[in-house]
Amino acid sequence: MPAPTALPDPHVCEQARLSRDARFDGLFFTAVTSTRIYCRPVCPAPAPKPSNVRYYANAAAAEADGFRPCLRCRPELAPGNPAWQRGEHVVSRALTLIDDGALTEGSLDGLATRVGVGARQLRRLFVEHLGAPPLSVHTTRRLLFAKQLLTETTLPVTEVALASGFGSLRRFNAAFAQANRIAPRELRRQPHAIQAGDALVLRLGYRPPYDFQGVLDFLRMRALPGIEQVQAHAYARVFGPADAPGWLRLSAWPDGHALKLELHCPQPARLLPLVARLRRMFDLDAEPCAIAATLGAGGVLAPLLRKRPGLRLPGGWDGFEIAVRAVLGQQISVAAARTLAARIVQRWGEPLAVPALPGLERLFPTPERLAEADLREVGVINARAETIRGIARALLEGRADFRAEQPLDEFVARWTALPGIGEWTAHYMAMRALSHPDAFPAADLILRRAAAGDGGELSTRALSVMADAWRPWRAYAVMHLWRSVADQAQPSRKRA
Predict the structure, then answer these.
(1) Which residues, other chains included, contact 56 with Cβ-Cβ below 8 Å and sequence gap of 6+?
(2) Residue 194: what pLDDT?
(3) Taking residues 220-228, what's their average pLDDT?
(4) SS3 at position 230
(5) Which secondary structure element, helix H or strand E, spans residue 138, and what is its range?
(6) What's this model's pTM, rounded to 2 decimal places?
(7) How many of the other CB atoms lie within 10 Å of CB of 182?
(8) Can you tell me the distance from the alpha carbon of 465 to that of 461, in angstroms, rounded to the nearest whole number?
(9) How much is the CA Rg of the chain, to the nearest whole Å?
(10) 2-16: per-residue pLDDT in tens?
């Protein structure tokens, strides 16, 4: 698969820098040779002379050349670059694994093996395309997260070191001082922490436009009582393990292009993976302009993009949970599938000794609990009950998984080899569990009707041919088409 473009055109970078265009936030960084500082394109500082400016595709490349992050615009708040964080190029898949913590406890050799190349070749590809080797990218990611924790929370420095993946406080202090030319404790002289009881409050940035309400609407229809709550302007959830449960709440940040994360996590070492998971689940690193340029070239999607330019791809919290819900949703309504899933949670979900928040008192059942469960007790038909048990056993035996680095075709092939899992279910799982931008359940009846656009119905093959023009963003086309049907149904419900 060809590599994505590392940097926008230099003239585009220059215009975006001078206009402080938030649509390019995180797509490149501006380094100033006179100050040795690198910034986001939205930095409010006076614009430097063009002769003093260098452009970098990512923060790690800027730091590799000796620049330090700006304390004013805070590069740690920039959304990720979807050109590299998604897709099936070797570098893209390796970056996804780095985001999931593959180098926190694993080795570079292990990372290279997981993406099917040698360690030397992987390092060469990273330097060629990103300007920095994998370990430098990993270190920069950890240090920028540490900088955010030091700036926005009151966590002790020892816990910040642990949360950002450093096993040694001494190594953390040395690495932080080298990258930032300042000791970690120096950032605490003018604290900006916002308190929310015993929860941390973090800012999660995105590129505008962002249809947060659309994501909430999608999740609200599927929210499981006891595990999730979707209010008018916020999403809340409890997560495991049962002996040290945590909770989170996401809402809009009062100003700026960001969401407000309130997070209670008893285990600091889990903070960085949790934030990475949330960024994927709420699709905070998407680039709406690139998606619209492909999907909006004409045809049925153009008016839908104009209506909802910031529509995103809502992911799921856990792969097994999404798989169970996908099977339950085969050939029945979303509401009916949600009812069955809620019964499963009440019957086999892990109850918490103390509710994390009012109304959040259970964890979704594990594969171990459902591998032999008689789901017919809660109204699941026998065929789907056996499929769910088969999924649980396949996960426990390693015959199927939700590894982030696997290509879409490989994922679909492995899952459709299981009894009861068809193309529709596998692609839906790829959309929600892997957040794969090109997953496309072409057999979906609602999609085939919505894409016809004339009250008719396309065949699965006809829709697949039409969708070839939407690659590599077919999953976003799914969301627009599904949303268009939901929007049309709302006036009818109101009249009823």
Answers:
(1) 7, 28, 29, 30, 31, 38, 62, 65, 131
(2) 65
(3) 96
(4) strand
(5) helix 134-152
(6) 0.94
(7) 13
(8) 6
(9) 23
(10) 455 568 899 999 999
Q: Which residue has the tokens 């889990």?
A: 270
Report the distance separating Cα 387 and Cα 416, nearest Å.
Answer: 11
Is 265 tagged catalytic? Answer: no
Catalytic residue among 39, 43, 70, 265: 39
Amino acid sitting at position 114: R
Residue 145's nearest CA partner among 214, 94, 75 is 75
- Residue 238: count of CB within 10 angstroms of its CB: 23
What is the pairing mode between strands 37-39 and 234-239? unpaired
444 is catalytic: yes
Q: Which residues contact 309 (CB under 8 A, 6 or more apart)?
A: 209, 211, 288, 292
User: What's the gap between Cα 209 and its chain centre?
Assistant: 16
Residue 127: count of CB within 10 angstroms of its CB: 15
Q: How far apart are CA 380 and CA 488, in angstroms?
A: 30
Q: Kindly state the tokens that stand for 467.
A: 């969708």
Q: Nearest Cα to 278, choosing from 479, 79, 477?
A: 79
Amino acid at 466: M
Q: Check: CB of residue 212 under 8 Å from CB of residue 257.
A: no
